[in-house]
Amino acid sequence: METISRMLGKLLNREEPRKEVEVKETKPMGWLDKMEHNKEHQEETLKSRKAVSPVIATVILVAITITVAVAVAYWMSSIAGQYTQFEKVEIQSGYASIVAAEDPIDVPEDTTTTPTTPAYTIPAVPAGWKITIKLKNTGSAPSTITDCFINEKPMDEYPTDVITWQYLDVIDATTQVIEPMTDAGVTLESGLSVTIYINIEQAGVTFTSGTTINVKLHSAGGMDYIRLIQLS
Questions:
Q1: Which pLDDT tens digit goes with each residue over 51-69?
Q2: Which pTM does this prediction carry?
Q3: Does the structural domain 89-102+122-230 have CATH classification 3.40.50.11320?
């Protein structure tokens, strides 16, 4: 017992050896050390970040693909529309009516208007025919009618004023005016219609009632629209 007591006493009274702590001297960081430290910090930051989930990445890629596809399709359709426009004019009706000769009419001065309307004379209407042709642009491009041929002969090669032409200008729903045709012709936008009148003076041509004539309208785009008309 005594021996055990002595041993316990020695153990209790024994002092642990003291460990010496080594103090390291801190040196100031140079620019190379700072770069290395920043690199390590960036690597730790990147490792701590979470990547985009595969589902979200797939959704983003699909959305971008659809957007690009729509943009390309719209661009291609606009280009195709520019190169696929075509001119097409249909002659919906064409007929001739006889015009009886009328004497010139003298209209006196009208003092009831402000300003006063001066006297004028309505020229005589010679006997002949009036051809009425209704056109409609069923193409996708505008069409401009510029020339008229009667029996393959240009209208202006007939004697002066023997054959003239006009068109019906629709200004609005309630106003329509017959205008003389100019060198510029008349333009039909896509989907619109126009009525053309061709006046033929009988005294200046060899046509007679019952004769069928060939009326050809020529456009600025190089198209020809032909109708056979029988004179009344």
A1: 567 778 788 888 899 999 8
A2: 0.57
A3: no
Of the given ranges (11-15, 135-139, 161-165, 171-175), which has the lowest mean pLDDT? Answer: 11-15
C-alpha 123: how far from chain center: 46
Of 206, 126, 98, nearest in space to 158 by CA: 206
Alpha carbon distance 189, 179 (integer Å): 18
What type of residue is 176? Q
Please state, in angstroms and rounded to a whole number, the distance separating the CA atoms of residues 167 and 62. Answer: 57
> Nearest Cα to 132, choosing from 102, 103, 168, 108?
168
Residue that wins the pLDDT comparison between 87 and 23? 87
Bond prior to 115 in cis (omega within 30° of 0)? yes
* 186, two tokens: 């008349």
Which of helix, strand or coil describes residue 20? coil
Token pair belonging to 5: 């007591």
